[in-house]
Specification:
The chain contains four helices and nine strands. With about 180 residues, it is of the alpha+beta class. It has one domain: Gcn5-related N-acetyltransferase (GNAT) (Aminopeptidase, 3-Layer(aba) Sandwich).
């Protein structure tokens, strides 16, 4: 059973619960029909991502790939694709991690597009869940990703370590969480 996630309404900062669910065709349809034009209109870096392909040919055909969505009031608020077996930590040689291969929030949740956003916390909830998956897999909370341009500050604010630009990955900045240590 996947956890409920806490999200924040942008209008009044009240906390609501969203559902973290496995990625399904409904979420892909929402992306195609409700997100894509807005992403293009506002020149977002993920405007050409092909979530249909990610679901059909990546997640459904590769055991090491998992896809998730966050829903609130039956509307897709975010999408995430992770890889669970093939990526190694850049902070601790020889250790595996969960690699986030794609993370996106709905256009109405992006301050750049709508201010205040409808919901805040979608990306934060995905990152927290990726750490949980990492723990479940025995990777001690290690998670890595390449940031799209303009989003680096968000990953910095989440406590991820900026490992620098990756010349093998279009010079995108690579971020990683180290070992998770519970407070106390």
């Amino acid at each position: 059973m996947l956890p409920l996630v806490k999200l924040i309404c942008g209008q009044d900062n009240t906390i609501v619960e969203g559902d973290l669910v496995e990625l399904a065709q409904k979420h892909i349809d929402d992306y195609a029909n409700k997100w894509k034009e807005q992403l293009k209109l506002h020149g977002q870096s993920d405007k050409f991502w092909d979530w249909e392909f990610k679901l059909e040919f990546v997640i459904n055909r590769q055991a090491n790939r998992e896809g998730f969505a966050i829903e609130y009031e039956d509307e897709t608020q975010g999408l995430m694709l992770i890889e669970t077996k093939m990526h190694g930590s850049r902070l601790v040689e020889g250790k595996r991690l969960v690699y986030i291969d794609g993370i996106a929030t709905a256009p109405w949740n992006r301050t750049y597009i709508q201010s205040p956003p409808k919901l805040k916390g979608v990306g934060t909830a995905f990152l927290a869940f990726a750490r949980i998956r990492s723990m479940e897999l025995g990777y001690e909370g290690r998670v890595g990703l390449h940031s799209l341009p303009g989003v680096e500050e968000f990953y910095d604010s989440q406590g991820m370590i900026d490992v620098g630009e990756d010349e093998d990955y279009d010079d995108l900045v690579y971020f990683e969480y180290g070992v998770f240590r519970s407070p106390g």
